[in-house]
Model the fold of this input.
Amino acid sequence: MTTKVTRITKLLGCKYPILQGGMAWVAESTLASAVSNAGGVGIIAGGSAPIDYLREQIKKAKSSVGDKPFGVNVMLMSPNADKLAELVVEEGVPMVTTGAGNPGKYMEMWKAAGIKVIPVVPSVALAKRMERSGADAVIAEGTESGGHIGENTTMCLVPQVVDAVGIPVIAAGGIADGRGVAASFMLGAEGVQVGTRFLSAEECQIHPTYKELVVKAKDTDSIVTGRSTGHPCRNIKTKFAKRLASDEMKGTITPEEFEEITVGSLRKAVQDGNLEEGSFLCGAIAGLVTKVEPAKDIIEDMFAGAEKLLAK
Ligand code: TUI
Done:
């Protein structure tokens, strides 16, 4: 088996079948361009950012990557999702990933514009629905991922989605080295999406405190908050995150109070490195991420490692 040519490399025109996760507040044009220029597919995260800022980010990425593929992630819970859905058409973005919901209402517009659409799905049911709506591929994302998560694990979800749909499947959640890529391919995936390992990329513009937390994290250093609100999110286990999770468990915080405390907390982590009030989103695989290096080295290390294993 090889990772070199898959339906994902053909669909997107990339050298390596790797998408960089559309991490809200983190994934801006510098990181996305570095990933695309290294042969992967860089993604600019829409998050809840203002549209004018995103237009500028898309223009920057376009001028940096030339004819290499890149994409935009539309976070469907964002109040700006409708506007971003139109902006990607206006700007001729070649590929869109979506998260935190069902992108059905945008599908027709995006397909008519020739945009490749790859939704994140946390279940077989949504994967099938997305295939019926015309998705070009799906990202089956396990609960090991950082940020907003579903319940099923990558190991269980990926093969079940692979069996349920005919379109290519990209595995996400807990993939940070060649072993993760090779395992994903053994489960039937034809590509991977990687977030946490790119947090440590030289080109990733997060606050140094955030990067240090990722590089120093060990296997037990992630925690899920937000279960009480119906929007569970995996974070680095800071004192702030531990207190939130514990208050939710004890029932001493209402979902409204939780929202009030965490509003703006992603920005506080990414821009300010604020340990008291920031949410440092991060996957459960952070323990495997031990150094800061260029995005190109990350991608080449992951695929050289995978090829070696898959050739055995
Ligand atoms: O979206 C993500 N990860 C994210 S988004 C984010 S920002 C945020 N802010 C406030 C609340 C929540 C998030 C931080 N991290 N990953 C992709 C993902 N999508 N994970 C899970 C899902 C998902 C969940 C339900 C996708 C579809 C879905 O569909 C439900 C339905 O409508 O059928």
About this structure: Residues 218-281 form one domain. The CA atoms of residues 185 and 283 lie 20 Å apart.
